Amino acid sequence: MAFWSSSMLPLLGLLSLFFLHPFSTSSSVHAIRLGAVVRRPSPDVPIFREAPAFRNGDACGTRDVDGIHVSMTLDANYLRGTMAAVLSILQHSTCPENLSFHFLSAQHVPEIVSTIQATFPYLNFRVYRFDSNRVRGKISKSIRRALDQPLNYARIYLADILPANVRRVIYLDSDLVMVDDISNLWGVDLGDKVVAAPEYCHANFTKYFTDEFWSSPEMAKTFKGRSPCYFNTGVMVVDVDRWRKGGYTQKVEEWMAVQKQNRIYDLGSLPPFLLVLAGNIKAVDHRWNQHGLGGDNLEGKCRNLHPGPISLLHWSGKGKPWLRLDSRKPCAVDHLWAPYDLYRSSRVSLEE
C-alpha cells in the first residue's frame, strides 16, 4: 500500500481521519491493568488507548523463520510518537504476528514498559538498557539540543545490544508513521552492503561538514573512491552481522573523537555515519523516507510532501506533529499523523 502526494494533500488529511483511524474515542482514562495488578500511571508517562489486535494475513509462517526485527528508542518525551509509529507498522503489515520490536531505553522506567503492554497486549517486544555513559564523553554540541541526547546515539551500538540471533534489523526513528507493508522494506537485497537506506544525491553533501573539515587535505580525502550522498539514519535496514564483523561501531566512534577535537560537523549523530558509510550503502526507493516533515532544525517551518509514492512519512526536523497538533497550530502534513495517535489527554482515574 502506498499513496501519492500532490494537490490532494488536504483531502488526504481529511480522509485519513475517517478511514485510517480504527479507534473510538473515550472521555475516561483509567489506570493500567496488568493481569490482576492495577498500576496508577506516572505523571511523566502519557496514557494511551488500547490498540486492537491485528491479524491481517494468512499463511504468514512463523516468527522464528519469517520474523522481522524492528528497533526504536524509548524516551518519555517521544513516547507518543513511538506508539503512533508502532500502530502504523502493525496496521499496514500483512503478517503483524511476525514482528518483533527491540526498544532501546536510557533509563529503567517500569511505567513505560507497562504502558506498552497495556496499549499493545499482543505485541512481541523487548526493552534493552542503553548505558548513556558509553557516549557522554563523545558527544559534541550540535545546532539543536535534542540532537545531543545520548539516546540519539544508541543506534550506533545496535550490534552490541541486540541478541546474537538478530542478524538484520530495521532501525526507525520515533517521529514517523508507515503506510506500507514493512516486509517490503525488510526484503531489500543488501548485497555486500552493511546498511540500506534512501539516498539523496541531489542534496549539497558538503554542507554537512565544516570548513575545517574540507580545508584539511587529510580529512578531505575521506571520501576518495566513493560518491557520497546524504542519507537519513532514522530509517535504515542494518545487516547486524556485517556491522559486527566490520567493527563499524568503532569506526563511527573514531570520527566522534575527531569531532571533539576539531569541530568538523554541526549536527548530532548523522555526520559520523556519513563519514563511515556515505557512498557505500544500498540505496532504496525514496518512498521509504518522506523525510523533513518536521521542518528545518532551527525553526521547524511547515513543509509539504514531495511528489511521488509514499510508504513512510517522517517528521525529521524540529517540529513534531503531536506538539503542533496540541498547540492548535498544525502543519497540513500533521493531519496524516493524527489518525495513528493513541494518546488520551483526559484526566487519569483508577480503574474500577
Automatic annotation (TrEMBL):
Gene3D superfamilies: Spore Coat Polysaccharide Biosynthesis Protein SpsA, Chain A
A GO MF term: glycosyltransferase activity
Subcellular location: Endomembrane system
Metabolic or biological pathway: Glycan metabolism; pectin biosynthesis
Signal in keyword set: yes
N-terminal signal peptide: 1-26
Membrane topology: Single-pass type II membrane protein
GO cellular component: Golgi apparatus
Major place of residence: membrane
Family: Belongs to the glycosyltransferase 8 family.
EC code: 2.4.1.-
Keyword annotations of the record: Glycoprotein, Glycosyltransferase, Membrane, Signal, Signal-anchor, Transferase, Transmembrane, Transmembrane helix
Protein name: Hexosyltransferase
